[in-house]
Every structure is written in structure tokens, then in C-alpha cells.
Design a protein that fits this description.
Length: about 160
């Protein structure tokens, strides 16, 4: 290979490296603020997880005097590791899944006050009787549905 093609190749490599470095520098300016936000988000969810487990230990009628189930603690550790990968919506779902490890109907997560996760609530309260799913209560303006039987949700029958 002659000197001129080698110089062109070297110049091309330098241009590519310079372009890649410039692009990385531009990306890193955006990424730094995103990384800080992500770190704050992860720290916030970890704080919530720690607080929730501590409250179980302090307030739960069984676990204030007994250790938490190992399966729950393992699931909590897995959740903590996966916080960066999970959306906020998924995190709320995972907290509800953790509550199921307790094994009673008294431990649950109410995500209605979650600031960063949009949500909605249907304005009726349902109860599954032996003869079907019925509206047993409703918010103001929806009272006419009380006593109604819910027969389907979309194309899925109840």
C-alpha cells in the first residue's frame, strides 16, 4: 500500500474517531441529567421498598413478632435489582405482588396516590356473589348502577 492511500485511511479513521467522540460528548451531556434522574428514581423506589418492608415488620399482626417470609425477602431483593429496568407502572404492580407473599387479605398496596403514575378508578364497587358480579356501591353520579349485574367486560363474560 502506498503512502497516500494509507494517509487517506488514517485521515478517515481520525474523522470517524473525532465524530464518535463528539457524538459521545453530546450524548453524555444529555445522559448526565438523565442518569441523575434515573439514580434519583431508583433511590426513591429503593427507599419506598425499604420503608414498606420496615412497616410490615412494625405493624403486621404476624410479622411484628416473626421474621418476614424468605420468599418475600428474595422477591424484594430481585425487585430492588430490577428497578432500573422496570417502569413506574410495573413497580406498582411488583409492590402489589410482594404484598401477595404475606398471604392474607389485609396486606395490600393502594397505588391511587402515586404521583408519577397516572391511574384511574372505576366509580363503582363490585362484589362477586354466588349468582354473579354485582355493583354494590357507587360514587356520586353513578348510583343508578347499584344493584346491576356485570355480565361482561368488553368481549369477556364474567
Amino acid at each position: 500500500m502506498s503512502l497516500i492511500p494509507r494517509m487517506r485511511l488514517l485521515a478517515g479513521v481520525i474523522v470517524l474517531l473525532t465524530s464518535a467522540t463528539t457524538a459521545r460528548a453530546q450524548d453524555s451531556a444529555v445522559t448526565k441529567s438523565q442518569l441523575i434522574a434515573r439514580a434519583d428514581r431508583v433511590a426513591g423506589w429503593n427507599s419506598d421498598l425499604t420503608f414498606w418492608l420496615d412497616q410490615l415488620r412494625k405493624q403486621h399482626y404476624v410479622y411484628k413478632s416473626h421474621p418476614l417470609p424468605p420468599a418475600l425477602l428474595n422477591a424484594a431483593q430481585d425487585l430492588s435489582r430490577n428497578i432500573p429496568r422496570y417502569s413506574d407502572e410495573r413497580m406498582l404492580f411488583e409492590f402489589q405482588r410482594l404484598a401477595a407473599f404475606i398471604g392474607d387479605g389485609h396486606t395490600y398496596v393502594l397505588p391511587l396516590a402515586a404521583e408519577h403514575v397516572p391511574g384511574s378508578v372505576i366509580p363503582i364497587r363490585l362484589y362477586l356473589f354466588s349468582d354473579g358480579l354485582f355493583v354494590i356501591d357507587a360514587q356520586p353520579g353513578y348510583e343508578k348502577w347499584i344493584g346491576s349485574k356485570l355480565t361482561a367486560i368488553g368481549n369477556t363474560s364474567t
